[in-house]
Amino acid sequence: MAASLVDKVMKGGGFWPAAPAFLYLVVFFIMPMAVLLAFGFVPIQRGTVQSANFTLEYLFDVLTDDLFWRVWWRSFYVGVLSTFFCFLFAYPLAYIHTLVGRRLQMVILILTVAPLLTSALVRTYAWLVILGGRRGVVNAVLMDLGLVSRPLRMLYSDFAVIVGMVQIHLPFMILPLITVLSSRDRKLEHASLGLGASRVRTFFRIVLPMSMPGIIAGTTIVFALSYTNFIIPQLLGGGGYTTVAVQVYEFIVVILDWNKGAILALLLLVSCFLFVLMITLAGNRMMRWTEAKA
Amino acid sequence: MSETMTTSRPATADVAERGNASKVIDRIGATILAIIAVCTVLLLSVPSLIVIAISFTETAYIGFPPQGFTFQWYADLFARDQIIDAAVTSLQISAATTCLSLALAIPAAYGLVRGRFFGRGFASALIVAPQMLPGMVIGVATLFFGAYIAFRQSNLMVILALTVFCLPFAVRMVMARLTQLDPALEEASLSMGASKTRTFFEITARQLVGAIIAGGAFVAIEAFDNLTVALFTASPRSRPLSVELYNLVQFDSSPMVAALSSLEILAAFVVMIVLAKAVGLDRLRT
Q1: If both were cysteines, with which of A43, A223, B70, B247 could A83 make a disulfide (CB 3.0 to 4.6 Å apart)?
Q2: Interface of B with A in 215-274 (CB under 8 A)
Q3: How much is the ipTM here?
Q4: Contact in structure between A160 and A237 (CB atoms under 8 Å)
Q5: pLDDT cut 70: percent of chain B above it
Q6: CA-CA distance, B238 to B146, in Å (whole number)?
Q7: Per CATH, which fold does A56-293 belong to?
């Protein structure tokens, strides 16, 4: 029996080795997603469907609520700023990775991958310690140096949330950039330098445009992660700090209004996909634009 | 680091032809690049080191710089049944999720790479789709689905939801390796008279071991650390360590939390060294 199964697999036998995984995802992924979708449009109470009446009430409630749009705007700018600063900090290191010897390359890679193996929660906690009140690392250092007389209030603000997001999502930006940059064709750079262009000019005109696929990959991942993260805003933003993702958590776990939680989760998901699509399209357009210019 | 940049200048570059102004700009550019890169290196490493340093403080609060040196917070940690139970729960969840994910992922990757069937592109897309969703959405969807079919939050629910979330990692790692395999090796084995079963286990599977270890390790770590899925699917009565830590971070300000975090950082570091030795660090990038 077992032998004949393996036989079939060895023949490159079609779909069926993938069938268990496929079936699993239909039951435990597609069906739950369908229920999530349904809960956004069908009245429910305590987890049971009250009536099978389809209603757009919850969707309209959310979309006509000023508070929702304020909260959404915060999700959006936190996502954009985190992505921007993440890129700004990630690119130089990824670029230098391609210029140094193998040993240093290894060190950079270890430093980048290691944080991925620790939980994001631990890394968020680190920022509580660093930015936190009077005895936080930053305030302790600043006060010791005599630069400030009173502790700065850094925690529980946009600043804290964005700093946390940038640092925690750095590896997701660095890795695609390293992949693209280390496989790049260096002839163009050499030609550019040989023709007398400065290194800075060569960097902006050749290296940066050529790494566009890595930039698109990194920015889409980091934006999606920052936009949908609710742990970092909760811990570093404090009690009154809400984003759409935080609201999803609060409506489902704390308030137990699953209709509103479901519709917010769906809006978060759909808007996230739209933004990722926009970044990808804009990136591709820029790529074609630079190619046309070259 | 600016020195390395100068030495890597290609021989063809005619330095003399370039003006002094552009040389100054280059110097400034290289300096800015190096400064930012150093900042990034510090950003990646210093926060973890600070947490570790603070876990040894003798003060009862979290403060910098740490005062004195004590293992008291680690002792406190191991004296708390709640935390030990949570750690055991997390280990169980991690082990079960890894086994289930690999059992589904290895044949799936094989079918998707070697199989030729209608809808293969769609099947590949479906299998990696959960990776593009935030963990929260998978957790919430599983919670709702469970409520719908009267299945309550439990360790089993965490495992089932985490497997959806982790499957793409495992499938992609095995697929990446499978596409690199040289089919000539399998053909040689078959033509030398080995059975297909034997060829599969001794030639094909053996070459996949590295990818399976790497994929399994990633799933195990993710399943152990995961908070966004577990927060919605775990039963309040048997919390995994991540959920326990989440509550501690919010409501407990003693350095014990730093001690627990330090242990996680240490464990991650050990796992990475082992993985780097076993399968090579480059493979971890996918």
Answers
A1: A223
A2: 221, 225-228, 231-232, 242, 245-246, 249-250, 257-258, 261, 264-265, 268-269, 271-272
A3: 0.88
A4: yes
A5: 91
A6: 17
A7: MetI-like fold (1.10.3720)
